[in-house]
Amino acid sequence: MLYICGHPGQGKSAVVDQVLSDHIEKLPKVVIFRYNAMNFESLKKFIIKIMDDVPLKAVSEQIASKRVKPDDTVTEDFEDATIEEMTAKLIRHIKMSFSLNKNRKKEQEANMKFILVIDEIDNFSKSTQAKNSFLNFLNLLMDKEHSTFRPHIVGIANSVELFQNSNKI
Predict the structure, then answer these.
(1) Does the global pTM surpass 0.85?
(2) Is residue 165 part of a domain?
(3) Who's near 104: CB < 8 A, 6+ residues apart?
């Protein structure tokens, strides 16, 4: 995980955008998802948005070839789900989405890169409980147990406090 923090207006987001755009052509097996945490009232809504967006980029080829029906990509109601349950489903969803070919070997899947850019990431730390849930989400997402799925996460914030006094990341 790359965490970039600094005062408002310093160009943090612009630098990330420029680096990604400069290198995207050199990274053919990369899918980038970019979000502003200010657009989400909760972590659950953020996770649901990622799941809704993954098919738009990663599964479009499957849908076009009729290997997956559009209905298969719709997220279910997570009203009572825990962050852990939602994160596990998100990981399964992304792994399935990147497996465009049933015969693809694990090594080939491991070459797929998933970059998650979260601007205003400190929005997910408005309370101690929200901060702990978000840090737990990040830990689950980056768990080494998911050998064929290790996302690259870029967090952009105005605050340095998100990871202070935290041994979770």
Answers:
(1) no
(2) no
(3) none
